[in-house]
Amino acid sequence: MKAAWYEKQGAARDVLKLGEMDDPKPGAGEVRIRLAFSGVNPGDVKKREDAFGVGMPYPRVIPHSDGSGAVDAVGEGVSQEWFGRRVWCYGAQSYRPFGTAAEYTVVPLKQVVQLPEGVPLEQGACLGIPGITAHRAVHVAGSVAGSVVLVQGGAGAVGACAVQLAHQAGARVIATCRAESDIEIASRAGADEVLLTSGNLAERIRVLAPHGVNHVVEVAFGANIKTDTEVLAQDGSIATYATNTPMPETPVWQLVFVNARLFFVGSDDVPAEAKIDATQDINKALEAGWQGLDIAETVPLNQIALAHELVEHPAKPGRVIVAIR
Questions:
Q1: What are phi and psi for residue 165, nearest 5 degrees?
Q2: What's the pLDDT at 268?
Q3: Are residues 255 and 135 both part of a single domain?
Q4: What's the number of domains the chain is made of?
Q5: Averaged pLDDT of the chain
Q6: Following CA atoms 193, 194, 198, 202 in sequence, which dihedral angle do they give, to the nearest 10 degrees?
Q7: Residue 325 and residue 315: Cα distance in Å, rounded?
Q8: Predicted pLDDT at 325
Q9: Residue of 54, 94, 132, 213 with fewest CB within 10 Å of its CB?
């Protein structure tokens, strides 16, 4: 099969290679997917750069955890009914060496989800990491039905998913974004109100939610924790999946006074049952008419370095996907 890989970490154009590898075979409980598209997430770029200082976990890595295509082989114990189904997958390169930047990938069946009819394969490649991260960030503290949920960064991939999933779960959703051009993205995802982050954001949130925000989905913990604390209701919760600085100052006493709960969400390590719940709710949202995430760029596999660079330095909002065929 044709595949892209790296055997050392560094800049995309320095380490990413394109070549031929043996076609993988599914083991017991696994399926092989003939990939159409591969999603590029910031985490994929960070692994390739060694941004977390973990080093090379395997001698050779085919990057990317998310992808879409059709099942073309099944392993022992997997029903033949899966053969030929259009699917999306997640976690292909989570604690595994070979992800979706290739013509084929093999993943456990539990990480494969049938793509709803009418949803394009391009969209399927966008769903895994952003959708699971968003779902966990929305639901980790319990039901949000009837609650006020603040989604900081509601126009990003995780943020837009969080807006939709919180809306679907019965919350009133306030989203924030940095640019006027992002307002439409968050609104289309299902936000009831969208606020720009400029000016006194906390004051404007309190006008919309005078009794406070029950739950916050946070994209930049260090930058926003002061605002989050100022608007949080008693017994409120914050779930953060990213931070602008690794060692932020935290207003501990103010959080103590409102009996706040803090949650830290990493998509790779979300409990398995929560991942399954997430995939079911994501599919329900798509079946109910959610159009999914905007796609900014579709790049051929032989230009995978460009795809990584577009994630590092976005030219426009939206996901970057790699066309395998």
A1: -70, -35
A2: 87
A3: yes
A4: 2
A5: 97
A6: 40
A7: 24
A8: 87
A9: 54
Tell me which residues of the chain have a pLDDT lower than 70: none
Q: Residue 49 is part of a domain; what is its CATH number?
A: 3.90.180.10
186 close to 161: Cβ distance less than 8 angstroms: no
Residues 58/52, Cβ–Cβ less than 8 Å: no
Cα 121 to Cα 266: distance, rounded to the nearest angstrom: 25
- What pLDDT, on the 0 to 100 scale, is given for residue 41? 97
CA angle in degrees (0–180, nearest 5) for 59-62-66: 140
Q: Which domain holds residue 203?
A: 130-268
Do 18 and 99 fall within a single domain? Answer: yes
Strand order across the 193-196 sheet: 193-196, 172-177, 148-151, 213-218, 232-240, 261-264
pLDDT, position 206 = 98
**Whole-number pLDDT of residue 220:** 98
The confidence score (pLDDT) of residue 270 equals 94
Can you tell me the distance from the alpha carbon of 209 to that of 18, in angstroms, rounded to the nearest whole number? 52
Specify the pTM: 0.96
Residue type, 220: A
Residue 73, both tokens: 């082989």
Token pair 């591969």 is found at 38
The residue count for the chain: 325
Phi, psi of 161 (to 5 degrees): -60, -40
Strands 172-177 and 193-196: parallel
